[in-house]
Specification:
136 residues, alpha+beta, seven-stranded antiparallel β-sheet, 3 helices, 47% strand
């Protein structure tokens, strides 16, 4: 299993951040790596990359303005992501941790793998960059 974590302070009210992140049907409007999102029901959605590659998400925990957890899976990976939110006055601290297992043998990590350094970390960093721009 590969783990990656990112923590950031965003100059925005926690309620607005929560609303933006949980509106998965709008991801294509602010996320640079998503072309569309298909909402299946209140606990399931599919996110498509700009190349049309799907990843299925299942929401497992929702604690409003505090915690959001999801299972994720596509043909390459299977894992879990946890988002933790903390209000700091007019700012909000967010922390996302992703735990992923590569399905294909050539992607399995050996120590600090290329998969962790490049794919997973890049995904989390891009999410935070895009979120800051959207709320900017």
């Amino acid at each position: 299993m590969t783990t990656s974590n990112i923590k950031a302070i965003i100059q925005c009210d926690i309620h607005k951040i929560w609303e933006t992140i949980l509106a998965v049907e709008c991801y294509h409007t602010w996320r640079s790596d998503v072309s569309k999102t298909e909402v299946i029901d209140e606990k399931h959605f599919i996110e498509y990359t700009k190349d049309g590659y799907p990843t299925t998400f299942t929401v497992t925990v929702v604690e409003p303005h505090r915690r959001w957890e999801l299972d994720m899976e596509n043909s390459h990976i299977k894992g879990h992501c946890t988002g933790v939110f903390a209000s700091k006055g007019s700012e909000t601290e967010i922390e996302f941790t992703a735990y992923v297992t590569a399905k294909k043998l050539f992607m399995r990590p050996i120590g600090k793998s290329v998969f962790e350094k490049v794919y997973l970390k890049k995904e989390l960093e891009q999410f935070v960059i895009d979120l800051k721009k959207a709320l900017g």
